[in-house]
Design a protein that fits this description.
The protein is mainly beta. The protein has a single domain, classed as Jelly Rolls, CATH 2.60.120. It is 10% helix and 36% strand. The N terminus and C terminus are likely disordered. Keywords: Signal.
Length: 203
């Protein structure tokens, strides 16, 4: 019984540490985390928290497998920039400043048909997409969600990226925690766990 209680205490400490401290990315060529596909659809949501002292770095990327649609979140000179395309042309939303202050910042991305809203620490900006169809790709063929950078094998498979330049963005150096989104179409948002990294070329 005492052993079981000890195990439960250790697990509770580990789980609480994971939530409060998150995972650390060092910016090296192998530094990234891979998560399940985002059920972004037409009315999806995604949120996470980050902490860094660097002004620039790729925080998150996902796309439709290399056609048109993508979502890229990165730090640019201390501000958070979302660049995205739903087939009608790229849009950019920039929120915040001096976010490289070493403190935790909360990012929320919300989709409502043609409207995309980016919120950082309760400050929001919205952009409306052009076109007639606002679904984010096709769930079956969309990429996984990458945080901090992309796998190195993309360098030889840039055609699989809807935004090839994302591969060459500076990798994020810092901590990320509490990544929450639906990982099924029309699903309920839930905290995501890291998937095993895939270092091989896709078949």
């Amino acid at each position: 019984m005492q052993f079981l209680n000890l195990v439960l205490v250790v697990l509770a400490i580990f789980f609480n540490d994971h939530i409060t401290r998150g995972f650390v990315l060092d910016g090296s060529s192998e530094s990234y985390s891979q998560f399940r596909k985002w059920g972004g659809g037409t009315n999806g949501s995604l949120e996470f928290e980050f902490k860094t002292d660097r002004k620039n770095g790729l925080l998150l990327y996902t796309d439709d497998g290399g056609t048109y649609d993508f979502f890229e979140i990165k730090l640019v000179e201390g501000a958070l920039r979302l660049r995205f395309n739903l087939g009608g042309g790229a849009q950019i939303i920039t929120v915040g400043k001096e976010l490289n202050d070493g403190h935790w910042h909360k990012v929320q991305l919300q989709r409502h048909e043609e409207r995309t809203i980016l919120t950082v620490d309760n400050v929001s900006q919205m952009r409306a997409s052009r076109g007639k169809e606002f679904n984010f790709g096709k769930f079956d063929t969309n990429s996984d969600v990458y945080v901090g950078g992309l796998p190195k094998w993309y360098n030889k498979k840039l055609t699989l990226l809807a935004l090839p330049s994302v591969f060459f963005e500076p990798r994020f150096i810092g901590s990320v925690r509490n990544l929450v989104y639906p990982d099924t179409e029309g699903g309920i948002p839930r905290r995501q766990e890291t998937r095993p990294k895939d270092h091989r070329f896709p078949q």
